[in-house]
Amino acid sequence: MKRPLAALVALIPTLALAHVGQDGSAHHGFLSGFTHPFIGLDHMAAMVAVGVWTVLAFRHAGRAQWVAPSAFAGLLLVGGLLAFAGLSVPGVEPMIAASLVVLGLLVATRIRMPAIAGAGVVGAFALFHGLAHGAELPADQAVAALSGMVLGTALLHVSGMALGNFVFSRHVWLPRIAGLGVALFGSALLAF
After folding, report:
1. 97 domain residue, yes or no
2. Domain assignment present for 116
3. Where is the secretion signal located (predicted)?
4. Is 17 inside a domain boundary?
5. How many domains does the chain have?
6. What residues contact 75, with CB distance under 8 A and at least 6 apart?
């Protein structure tokens, strides 16, 4: 029983490795950028959590529920462009893991805050997600790859919003369990 558990624990750091390939994981073109948020569990969990949380926190706020996901997508693009331009910031990977902890806790607790504050929280983390990828972009593919990545991110946000609307808003305990799962995943990434 100990060996299978040890094997699973040993695999935790690889769950966040959406950066695979023989060329150091550079994103080549629109399709590569588009699929990137879907192939790394850390990226997918963060993007879906943003969508779920905004519905849970701002469900009856009309257009305000679009502020945080829009801020995330926009600041992901800004972070990618800054890194592509040469900006290097220490602690990018730990901040991505920390984003999972925070976003998971936001979902689990259904914390409400003004829409602009929510946009600031998720936007700050989005910068780090963007910085993680901007440095990998080949010069001739940067615009296409970032465009694809932003579109993939937006689709995951909308998927999270649909999940929040159709499932999590009807069951009090489901978002708590899912949010805690995302937070624990982020904590595991921080630990490794």
Report:
1. yes
2. yes
3. 1-18
4. no
5. 1
6. 123, 124, 126, 127, 130
Look at phi and psi of residue 28 and say left if phi exceeds 0, alpha if psi is from -120 to 50, else beta. beta
Torsion of CA 113, 119, 120, 122, to 10 degrees: 100
* Domain extent at residue 32: 26-191
Tokens of 4: 């299978």
Give the pLDDT confidence of 131-147 residue by residue, as tens digits: 998 888 887 888 899 99
Distance CA 185, CA 103 (A): 11
Q: Highest mean pLDDT range out of 26-30, 97-101, 138-142, 169-173?
A: 97-101
**Residue type at position 40:** G
Q: The tokens of 152 are what?
A: 């993939």
Residue 89 pLDDT greater than 80, yes or no: yes
Range 11-35 average pLDDT: 59
Residue 134 tokens, joined: 């901007």
**What's the pLDDT score for residue 2?**
53
Tokens representing 20?
């695979």
In a domain? residue 184: yes
Structure tokens given for 22: 């023989």
Dist. CA 126–CA 187, nearest whole Å:
18
Task: Measure the CA–CA gap between 39 and 176, rounded to whole angstroms.
Answer: 24
